[in-house]
Design a protein that fits this description.
Length: about 325
Amino acid sequence: MSIYILGIETSCDDTSAAILKDNKILANKIAGQEVHKGYGGVVPELASRAHQQHIVPVVDVAFREAGITKDKLHAIAFTRGPGLLGSLLVGTSFAKAMALGMNIPLIEVDHLQAHVLAHFIHNNNTEPPELPFICLTVSGGHSQIEIIKDYFQFELLGQTIDDAAGEAFDKAAKILGLPYPGGPLIDKHAQDGNSEAFKLPHPKVTGYNYSFSGLKTSFLYLIRDHLKSDADFIKKNLNDLCASIQKAIIDVLLHKLTMAVEDTKIKRVAIAGGVSANSSLRQRLKDLANEKGWKLHIPPFEYCTDNAAMIAIAGYYKYKAGIWGSQSAVPYARKNQ
Ligand code: KG4
Ligand code: ZN
């Protein structure tokens, strides 16, 4: 008998609903929020209001696209955290109410685990990683290197001690006057730029941890100094600046990832999270994997940035393991709360 799961994701600024049949996605709908563009970042209050407006229509469209009615569902999986509390509350309340009304189980999902488990969504073009594997999870709020031992057993090896990788991209973009989220724009401009044009320092942090705040400050000072003598400095050098900061961020990530793979001798490597959509990171990882003989797993683009398909697949594995959620579950803003 097939298992049907509805996944709900509202941790940040994307309202998403997905319907899964076993490990296959029937629909994965995402409503983004344009409202934050002019603010240089996500405005929490505006995000939760937009989730309230989007959640019902997004779920409705997901059912229509999946071609099933809600009575087919076996469970509802939702993101409990980490994320913005007001945003999480919308998805949590929706999932609880619907599960209660339909008398079906509720499943709590951790957003970061879900980014990793997106690798197990059935996809004709890629095969899922074999356990255990090393995963570099790089998003707007978190950056970490873990050993994935089982679906819900992750060992943390290292993480950022300040800004997340996506945050580093977004802050660099903001310095350049680009709108939020800046990561995809840096990626785009960098494709026509010279990554050696501006030298940026490599932060020195011990172990598998890393840091981006020093890099961001150096980038800020570099631009401030050049602007003193040339008011058009950014405009004239935008592509090269994007390529240089992108290279510096990816150098840090790949250096620590390589250390982790070499020390653990686990040569199965995956990336996950919004920054794994970055074209240079994907290409450089492919080259590195070829050179070092790693088996590499890169998620399809639609499962890199926030989406409910990853919540639904995490829900599927919890359903199979009998790990149920509770009507008294409260969202958590940070990990380990
Ligand atoms: O995983 P995600 O969608 O949301 C969080 O869980 O935070 O990640 C969003 C982050 C943002 O910082 C965004 O700028 C970054 O992922 N991002 C990218 C690219 N696409 C999204 N960063 C660099 N290059 C990209 N192509
Ligand atoms: Zn995310």
